[in-house]
Amino acid sequence: MFTKDPGIDSIQIALGTLVLQDRDKVVLKLRMKDLLVEYKNRSLRYSYSYNTLRVIITVGSLIVPSVMSIEYMNTTDSRTGSGMYWLVWIISLFVTISNGVVTLMKIDKKYYVLNTAYQHITSETWQYIELSGKYSGFYTPGQEATHQNQFIYFCHVIEKLRMKQVEDEYYKIIDQPHATQQQGSDSLIPPTPLKELFAPEEKSVIEVNGDHQTTVKRANSVSVAPAPITSS
């Protein structure tokens, strides 16, 4: 089911005006449309369900004591007393069923999680479109912020929000990759062997047991290489 929403349409129009590579623009529009439509539809369904069930529980809980007091006061008419009894029973049944459905299906939790995720993703998207907030150059110090050089960081943030919502709704994954554990969960640039491979070298010559050897120091590591033997 596709929900026609002016907010989603506005985001789609704004994303189409960004200066990006063709591939990045297609990926961005498809991914954002799927996420926004999914969250919008699910948040609407759970909003209707949650509010309807909560109204039944609240109103029913208030009506039952009132009806029971009326039934207690009117004890002369058996027909009226019987009708009051069945009315209280039906209302209590609806209240119990509604409360059980909310608890069993976790409608209240999903209502909050989905609406929060939808609003958060919408806000992040507009920040990226406007190049404001963290997308104004926070990830690229010394460079002018553009939609192209902020694209990879925006995609990373959106996917993190997606996975956070999945973990909150279903199952939380506590095992993190080794790279994430080293640099922290919010790091966007994982460690790479290239930093060590292309680190500047420091060479020095030492004498070991009468032989000249060269030590090479790179990225806090030291390796020893034998120097070429020269005849004296």
What does the model show?
- 11% of the residues are buried.
- The termini are far apart.
- The protein has helices at 6-16, 22-73, 78-105, 107-130, 151-169, 178-183, 193-197; strands at residues 202-208, 211-218, 221-226.
- Strands 1-2-3 form a three-stranded antiparallel β-sheet, with no helix packed on it.
- A hairpin with a 2-residue loop joins strand 2 (211-218) and strand 3.
- With 232 residues, the chain is mainly alpha-helical.
- The chain is built from seven helices and three strands; from the N terminus they run αααααααβββ.
- The model is unreliable at 182-199 and 219-225 (pLDDT under 50).
- The protein has two domains: 6-183, no CATH class; 195-226, no CATH class.
Features:
single chain; elongated; 3-stranded antiparallel sheet; 9% strand; 232 residues; mainly alpha; 2 domains
Write the layout of secondary structure elements.
Elements: H1 6-16, H2 22-73, H3 78-105, H4 107-130, H5 151-169, H6 178-183, H7 193-197, E1 202-208, E2 211-218, E3 221-226
Helix pairs in contact: 1-2, 2-3, 2-4, 4-5
